[in-house]
Amino acid sequence: MSLHTTTSQTVGPYLHIGLTWLITENLAPAGVPGERISIGGRVLDGDGKPVNDALVEIWQADSRGNYGGKRFRGFGRSATDEDGAFRFHTIKPGRVPGPGSSMHGQLQAPHILVQVFMRGQLKQLVSRIYFPGEPSNAQDPVLARVPAARRATLIAVKRGKKGVLEWNVILQGRNETVFFDC
Amino acid sequence: MITGYRRPTAGTQPEYLFPRYASTVKRAPTQPLVMLPQTETELTGPVFGYGEVKRGDHDLTRQHAGDPIGERIIVSGRVLDENGRPVPNTLVEIWQANSAGRYPHRVDQHDAPTDPNFTGAGRALTDKRGHYRFVTIRPGEYPWRNHYNAWRPAHIHFSLFGQAFVQRLVTQMYFPGDPLLAEDPMYNCVPDERARQRLISTLDWETTLPEIALGYRFDIVLRGPEETPMENRKR
């Protein structure tokens, strides 16, 4: 039996009505082990204007590299504000196995999976956030597939205080964020 | 163990750039997408439960003091994967306009009444056979500014998670026989006519409640796991 995946459609401009009840910007309540981080950024369109009606969702492992734990679910959802800004307070994920068998796969560098939904997009965008100054980035099997000149768009930038990171979603133009087809 | 999810069939999923839907022009990526291998990150996903979804959340007609204005309907169906297997215990979120075609949202300035008894948001978890069910009112059509005299056909927005983040899907359900579908850029965003028609619900006598509400059926298919040779041997 083979069915076809239902056609994707835009969330439209009124997404907040159905989706903000599950806003989760603080993923790691007190007691969750790991290095505390804050990641924020803006979504900007082809004219460099803030996208004030986007929904950013993230999915990540816990600090030991396990997905879907009891104490740390690893799912976040943030709706952009008038400046196109979103934010998450979480912990730095541990390393997880790379492509192929989990037994033999090479470990990936710490990363967070991102999906972005908005009016003007008939299906979501997929991207990843990597961490600055992380030696394992050099061997990461996914980053290795990204043209070298564009890799920096996937790596967050340190901002001010310890643990504060910036990562932006640039939809078009110079510095356009790398988006994935998976 | 699931090793990957199949690619969509050609013509059944939209491209990012679709100029008939004007807002895609400044929001679609211009650089080529990079192929992402499906790793544990992509093959897992969040699980939601009754801690979050409350028992009455599926009934949009019982969220306020009075009854909403409009035609009460029941919207139900199954969530399956491409292999025809039910997707159990997965979160389904919906949102829609009221019967006059108006959303209670600051951006919606359409000159039609809001309804104090209708917010237009619901959620449910599928049961172990993949069934979901909502009680709501039939949404109205409404104008938008995509092109001259543009009107959206009546629709309900659906958001689904599935069991892996690569199964995540947002879509819209339409109603049978709606003459606005032919002109709607969203509905016409893919070339495969059968794929478009699968976005249209069907009138369903089995779920219709006599003297209470018409039933509409809308089955949703999420990406299916690859059937690996190893799995076939095991069966």
Descriptive notes:
- The complex is a heterodimer of chains A (182) and B (235).
- Helix content of chain A is 3%, strand content 27%.
- Chain A is built from 1 helix and 10 strands; from the N terminus they run αββββββββββ.
- In chain A, a hairpin with a 5-residue loop joins strand 7 (157-158) and strand 8.
- The longest helix of chain A is centred in the first third of the chain and has 5 residues, at 15-19.
- The mean pLDDT of chain A is 95.
- Chain B is mainly beta.
SS field, number of helical segments of chain B: 3
What is the CATH C-level name of chain A? Mainly Beta
Bulk shape of chain A: globular
Distance between the termini of chain A: 23 Å
- How many individual helices of chain A? 1
**Helix amount of chain B:** under 10%
Q: Indicate the mean pLDDT of chain B.
A: 95
Stretches of chain B where pLDDT is under 50 for at least 5 consecutive residues are 231-235
CATH homologous superfamily heading of chain B: Aromatic compound dioxygenase
Share of residues in helices of chain A? under 10%
